[in-house]
Amino acid sequence: RQELYRELRERPSLSKDGVRVDLMMNAGLAVDLPQLADSGAAGIGLFRSELQFMVAATFPRAEAQEALYRQVLEAADGKPVTFRTIDIGGDKVLPYFRGGEKEENPALGWRAIRLTLDRPGLLRTQVRALLKAAGGGELRLMLPMVTEIGEITKARHLIDREVNHLARFGHLLPTRLKLGAMLEVPSLLFQLDELMRVVDFVSVGSNDLFQFLTATDRGNGMLSGRFDPISAPFLRALKHVLDAGARAGTPVTLCGELAGRPISAMALIGIGFRSISMSAAAIGPVKAMLVELPVRELERAIAPVLADGGASRDARALLRDFATAH
Ligand code: PEP
Ligand code: MG
Q1: Residues in the chain with pLDDT values less than 50
Q2: Fewer Cβ atoms within 10 A, N terminus or C terminus of the chain?
Q3: Distance CA 138, CA 168 (A)
């Protein structure tokens, strides 16, 4: 298998019928970087910047943040990298940071963009480090756990101020800055057109989106596997996001665990995703599936599942049958 994956690495990322699908990897620390070349990923679709904060004993200094981001961009060597601003809070606690009160529902709590907008010093330091590290190139920034459009507006305002500040002091700025939002909170599903207008890209965080849509704690073993993301309701939600992105010309990608399982990746491609981000180890198996996949045929097979008003067919069984037949 390893032999096969190595060989696949050199092949273009095309389906059997020639549809291009970018397979990106998720990363978060310098130790992940060699996997970029090893896996043949098209880039880093999700850089979980909070990991540097989680392995540290105190808040990483601005210099340390900038140094890591430089290292990441250097390793990427021109391939796109999407940096997520720190997603701390919830299950990602920093032992040295006690900002809020004790929370009964941390997943629904003071976390991610909510926390960093309330502690703008944290966000400002990180944004500045990113802007400096990406000087002269493209910077792709992504906001976690966005619930309403106003959060994006506020973050953009803060980013603009940092850009102006650095410009005033003659720093080399990124040639292009793209701001994206993670779609993880269901409320965004009902503001899709507005969302697509205010961001440069959207990335679905399927781990959290599925957790919140089904009201199912993603870490609770008693419930794992009970509800299936490869099912009509979840796939329809994702299709709505893709359709809104297409209407606005805003790229939509997905970076949760779903992307890393061949059968789920197949479902995602079947409903229209053309870029997905997964753990580096998953790229080989997913690419092995992709090169054998007749995408147009799969699109036709999966269409009845997506049609609202139709019966909620067993999507997983349909996909399994399709995979066996091909
Ligand atoms: C997600 O929620 O799907 C995601 C990619 O973010 P994380 O797993 O880090 O919460
Ligand atoms: Mg998440």
Answers
A1: none
A2: N
A3: 20
- Measure the CA–CA gap between 114 and 103, rounded to whole angstroms: 14
d(CA 180, CA 47): 13
Question: Mutation test of ligand 1: which of 87, 213, 218 has the most ligand atoms closer than 8 Å to its C-beta?
Answer: 87
The model's pTM is 0.96
Residue whose structure tokens are 């900002």: 99
Interface pTM, i.e. ipTM: 0.99
Residue 25: its pLDDT value, please?
Answer: 98
**Residue of 182, 203, 254 best suited for mutating to test ligand 1, as the one with most atoms within 8 Å of CB:** 182
Question: What pLDDT shows up at residue 91?
Answer: 76
Residue 147: φ, ψ to 5°: -115, -35
- Count other Cβ atoms within 10 Å, centred on residue 168: 8
Q: Is the distance from the beta carbon of residue 184 to the nearest atom of ligand 1 less than 6 Å?
A: yes
